[in-house]
Amino acid sequence: MYERGRREGWYRRGGRVPSEYRGGSYVVNDWQREHLSRPRRGYHWVRGDNGDFLLVAISTGVILNILLHH
Predict the structure, then answer these.
(1) What is the C-alpha to C-alpha distance for residues 38 and 12, in angstroms, rounded to an integer?
(2) Across the strands, what pairs with 20?
(3) What is the pTM of this model?
(4) Where exactly are the structural domains of the chain?
(5) What is the CATH number of domain 2-67?
(6) Mean pLDDT, the chain, as a whole number?
(7) pLDDT tens digits for 24-41?
(8) Which residues, 6 or more positions from 46, have their beta carbon under 8 angstroms from its beta carbon?
């Protein structure tokens, strides 16, 4: 995710995560176990391949925040 995102330019705040990263094993459902804050309404945490966590809008895929190597 990180390498592709940097290459394509979306791995940044305000960037749009491609749909294939917004579901399945990338979505963090147990955010408490990962010591993450409760996601805002309409957002969820997505785990990057490099250990980062991205707070992403569920409907649009826009990245609100990135926690580097959490």
Answers:
(1) 21
(2) none
(3) 0.91
(4) 2-67
(5) 3.10.450.160
(6) 93
(7) 899 999 999 999 999 999
(8) 17, 21, 22, 26, 27, 28, 53, 54, 55, 56
